[in-house]
Amino acid sequence: MSLEARLSSALSCVRHAPRWCVAFSGGLDSTVLLQLLVDLARREALPPLRAIHVHHGLQSAADAWPEHCRRVCTALGVPLEVVRVQVEAGSSLEQAARQARYAAIELRLEDGEVLLTAQHRDDQAETLLFRLLRGAGVRGLAAMPARRRLGRGWLVRPLLDVSRGELEAHARRLGLTWVEDPSNDSLEFSRNYLRHQVMPVLAQRWPQTATTLARTAAHMAEAQALLDELAEMDVAMMASPGAYAWLPVPSLALAPMLSLSPARQRNALRHWLAPFTALPDSEHWKGWESLCAAAADSTPVWRLAAGELHRCGDRLWWLSGRWLRPVVGPVAWNDPNQALQLPDNGSVQIAGAAAPARYEVRYRQGGEVLQVPGRGSRDLKRLLNEAGVPRFARARLPLLYADGQLVGVANLPGLCALPLTIDWQPPPADAGLS
Questions:
Q1: Three-state SS at 356
Q2: Which domain holds residue 360?
């Protein structure tokens, strides 16, 4: 099958996208991809095409690349946007540049738009080998997916089944010109070391090294898909709402989780936590083991990159953002007939007639006492324990005071000294990772 036909087949799943955008570095791979797409558009009905060039400013040679990309795109009749980014210093310049590049492009993708990148089979093989040497699991060894979400659109890699040799042969046959990145020859970068020092040696002994490694990545992607399906079934089993379904933070029932083998527990948790936080490596799963092994009446916490996993009662709760910040109070409630907005803590309103008094909302400080109808004066801490209110929620739970006296607890109808109900609408959980 010709290169053009393979590209057309690889793009069949995104033909109905509103627009295609090519990540155009000006190098060999993206130059061939752009030229192939322009040729394909002359013969087939394709979405509108544009290109984007990200200038990292990391080396003086790169200053000439935007102009080269403009000339190429002008000749092909493709609109080009040049974006300059600032690369943050870090332990890996490669990774920092990649993150800055994708972040800049993600901001510019329209709804449903498809970003097309030119990674090929050799890139896929190097990625698998690189991750294998870092001790990656199945998901990491699946290397680069052919398609994934990116912001409001999609990222598609239509050349993963094409070798770099094929791309170069095609470019030379058509007399295409491209820029050469001097940093690609630097053995300081791990991927370059693999490309120039390791892969050629492997190919001498096993000529199909790149092909077989890319095939292994495909096998790993299939295995990961099966693990994801298993995780979805396991998480669905744990997703039944608990007694406090009005708390808008992600949670899972603990008992079904603990009924699974340790490997299935980790698989399910990885799947569930992935939208919320960067996941720990294998050495840091001791935190999960400690959380499971803690005493039944304790409230252990597992701290992760973007938040905390709490075990409260019979559930696991994911807390991040505002749910880890202290609340600010007291808050005067001058008109109890109107809803009261609480700083960074949602809103409360009263259902029922509130007698004239000086009302305010406070939060727990310790030592509070509530007059409970039919039970007399009771310690609030004990009442909350009896009600099973998750520990993390108690500090945010609005307490209604009238003339300086605690008269009720929001969302707990049995804990109110007055003939009324205090409804609290908690703030939503913070958005997870992109």
A1: coil
A2: 331-425
